[in-house]
Amino acid sequence: MTRWIDRWNRYWFPTTTTRTLALCRIIAVSAQLYWFPSLLSHINLASKNPDFVDPQVLIRAITFIIPRDVLFTPQGITTLYWITLVAGLTALVGLFSRPSLFIFALGNWIFVGHRYSYADVHHPEALFAIFLMTLALAPSGRSLSIDALLRRPRARNAGASTDRLETSDTAMWPLKIAHVLLAMTYFSTGASKVIVGGLGWMNGYTVQIYTFANAMPENRTWGIWLAGQHTFGVLLGAFTVLFELFFFVSLVLPRTAPFFFFNAILFHIALYVTMGHQFFLHIILNAMLLFLLHPGWFRGLVNRLNVNLPRWSRQEQAPGSS
Amino acid sequence: MRQPKVWSSIVILLVIGLHAVPVLSYQGNRQTRWPILAWAMYARPIPPGPIEMRRRRIFGLTSSGQEELVTTRLVGTNRAALRNTYLNPMSLGDSTTAQQLLRVLNRGRSDPFVEVRLEGERHFISGDSLATEKLPALTYKLNPSELR
User: Fold this and answer.
1) Nearest to A233 by CA among A215, A260, A250, A258
2) What is the pLDDT of residue A160?
3) How far is the C-alpha of B90 from the C-alpha of B96, rounded, in Å?
4) CA A291 – CA A230 distance, rounded (Å)
5) Contact A46, A77 (CB under 8 A)
6) Looking at beta carbons, which residues of chain B come within 8 Å of A184?
């Protein structure tokens, strides 16, 4: 039992700098502020519908305490909007970091839950929303924040070393859980394709027709072109299923992780360009994992290039070299 | 400090464990447990056949003769819900759904819609080129009893 607990702690709770988590906070909050819910569209949804159609669990829980005609009105939604926005701004600069993050995350959860309570549910925001909430439960304001700045004089006066504030054993788990959730959801998507259709998903027509159905309404040139390419359809179908099924390998073999994160970014960019699927927050998550989960790989690559590039260019310039 | 790790571990196990719920109790397209969702989008393979799609739009005609495109904003819904709840049934001749749409559109309107017309095209790839074929329009008039 102790061995399992040690393994658990080694994976989820390595002692690391809190700067990585702070960077995640800044990047994640910036992204969510950029893709902030539209106040007008939420007011429109609430005004045009006398009731929810398929209310999300979160919305049902809220309306159990606060009636729909109190919160989900133009005034209620506007108030929630501004509270969430202000919380986002204070979370970004790291002022009252954890409460700010919690209110910001919860506000966004309510807005997305509200949008998906009218017979239409989509996936792009789900994992990012969970990640945002985990930032509120971890020491995200310990570095690169106003909270950290305010804490330093107090720590110095108390005779404590300010360096001690910079590391924590609970600074990595939000990134790690983002990694695990991505692996689970990609695997789930891939497995469902194989379970429902076997190898049929890789017949080429599946990719072609799905791409065409999504590209045409938005006149996406690349998607319309791709829909006419059968061989590409077969190859992309195979790539999609294999990528989704085997992304979890990045958990088991950490050295392969950068490869999977990079391919995930390309995958989602391609989905947007060809089909208009806006998994931008997944791109952000994978980019954070690529550069912040095991930052050593990137530093190692840069160091190797710094060492080898001058040597390679000297070899090219040397007389008699072919 | 043990406590933060214990609470964090509980959250981790909860978040991961909850993802089993939508898989074990699958709700199909009408999921209500966001952000804990089943991730089975585009699972269905499509058998070999023509590369085609149908694009439909709804136009509404008001009592004063104004014609307006029926958008998600006008209906107060989202794109997929507009398609699944109204467009698809109406394209199959479902007049009850059309009446329901007119009722929704006319809420609080001084110039009510008296007719909705479904127009569309079939787009398909033929050889190396993209072809389009107009679909027959379907018109639904508001029940006279609804105007009173």
Assistant:
1) A215
2) 59
3) 8
4) 35
5) yes
6) 16, 19
Give the closest of A54, A129, A192 to B43, CB-based.
A192
CB atoms within 10 A of CB A293: 22
Question: Shortest CB distance from A206 goes to which of B23, B31, B46?
Answer: B46
Cβ neighbourhood burial of A7 (10 Å; 0-12, 13-18, 19+): exposed
Judged by CB atoms closer than 8 Å, whether chains meet at A115 and B29 is answered as no
Our measurement of the distance from residue A96's CA atom to the centroid of its chain's CA atoms, rounded to an integer in Å, reads 23
Rounded distance, CA A25 to CA A144, Å? 9
Question: For residue B61, what is the DSSP state?
Answer: E
Kindly indicate the confidence band of residue B1, based on its pLDDT and cuts at 50, 70 and 90.
very low
pLDDT digit string (tens) for B133-147?
A: 999 999 999 988 766
Q: Number of Cβ pairs closer than 8 Å across A and B?
A: 161
pLDDT tens digits along A137-183: 999 999 999 999 998 877 667 665 555 558 999 999 999 999 999 99
User: For residue A86, what is the enclosing H or E element?
Assistant: helix A74-93
Q: Which of residues 73-92 of B touch A (CB under 8 A)?
A: 73, 75-81, 84-85
Of A268, A127, A116, residue with least CA distance to A184: A127
What pLDDT, on the 0 to 100 scale, is given for residue A307?
79
Integer Cα distance of A154 and B113 in angstroms: 67
Region A2-17 average pLDDT: 93
| Model ipTM value | 0.90
Amino acid symbol at A128? F
- Contact of B2 with chain A, judged by CB distance below 8 Å, is answered with no
Indicate if the pLDDT at residue A297 is higher than 60: yes
Say yes or no for a CB contact (<8 Å) between B53 and A129.
Answer: no
Q: Say which of B5, B34, B77 has its CB closest to residue A13.
A: B5
Q: Which of B3, B6, B8, B97 to mutate to test the interface with A (most CBs of A within 10 A)?
A: B8
State the pTM of this model: 0.91
Whether B77 and A200 lie within 8 Å, measured CB to CB:
no
Chain B positions touching A9 (Cβ under 8 A) are 5
Residue extents of the structural domains in chain A: 15-170, 172-295
What tokens does A69 get? Answer: 């005609």
